[in-house]
Amino acid sequence: LPDLHIDSEMHTLELRVRSERAALDNARRAMVDFVAIRNPSESVIYRLELILEEMVTNFFLHALPPGGREELRIAMHLSAEEIELVFDDGCAAFNPLRENASAMSTSLAGASDGGRGIALARHAADRWHYERVAGRNRSTIGVELRDDARVRHSR
Amino acid sequence: MSLKEADDGITHVALEGRLDVLGADSIGIQFTAAVAVKGNDSIVDLSRVSFIASMGIRLLIAAARALDHKGGTLVLFGATGPVQDILDDAALEQIMPIVATEGEALARLAH
Questions:
Q1: How far apart are CA A50 and CA B53, in angstroms?
Q2: What are phi and psi for residue A49, nearest 5 degrees?
Q3: CA distance linking residue A27 with residue A10, whole number of Å
Q4: Which residues of chain B have a pLDDT value below 70?
């Protein structure tokens, strides 16, 4: 990946995403390889992939203006307890923590097809901090490596 | 994606792999056409879907809505683990029927 930088000693990975289709799958594979050293559970990997997918998709579908040349910068940091993802872009101000998830609960007739991505990503995160810094959006998202506190029901 | 027109007049569809933005896009037209063109009630097997995100959910809702406009019902079944968790998080069960097994899906359509 030409826009991939990994600092193994600092346990940091940095990506710059400029085109959705080619970059998303490559970014996902790079992330999974990067976090493998911590041997995360399948559930943690799923949550990381979901957050990455929804943030990248949201950037290209909604944040990036038509013909825009802005890039999405993604940094990942590994610690003993969690994986931190930082998404940074220079598009119009957008606070994902203020996204209304009302579209998620309604009938088929009234449901919108979309509008669920950010809400799903927020649900997958253990912590999420948004800030607007020097004209840029920055979301800092933490996913704990030990996810046994998250008891989910599965059929 | 596999498709079966059974003798029961119900369209049986099995999806597999990743229903992420790339996966959903690659099967979108084919899947929606499979369940909506004839307007038959349809059941969709998700047991071999390993990952689903919002674009996959969007695809399921769009197909269910297209089928609903023709008087049919789309029932999902077989989702397990994180895929089922995502369907729960999206409150998809409030929008379309989601059951555990093929038998339950067929029973839901019999009502």
A1: 6
A2: -65, -40
A3: 19
A4: 1, 3-7
Question: How far apart are the C-alpha atoms of A23 and A51, rounded to whole Å?
Answer: 15
State the pTM of this model: 0.89
B89 at interface of A, judged by CB pairs closer than 8 A: yes
Interface of B with A in 31-50 (CB under 8 A): none
Burial (CB count within 10 angstroms: exposed 0-12, middle 13-18, buried 19+), residue A72: buried
Cross-strand partners of A141 = A85, A128
Query: Which residue is closest to B100 within chain A, CA to CA?
Result: A155
Query: Interface pTM (ipTM) of the complex?
Result: 0.90
Chain B CB contacts of A42 under 8 Å are 81-82
DSSP structure class, residue A150: -
Residue of B nearest to A115 (CA): B54
Query: Using CA atoms, how far apart are residues A99 and A78, in angstroms rounded to an integer?
Result: 27
Quickly list H helices, B1-111.
Answer: 21-36, 54-69, 81-89, 102-110
More confident residue, A13 or A133: A133
Q: What is the pLDDT of residue A115?
A: 78
Structure tokens at A123: 């649900």
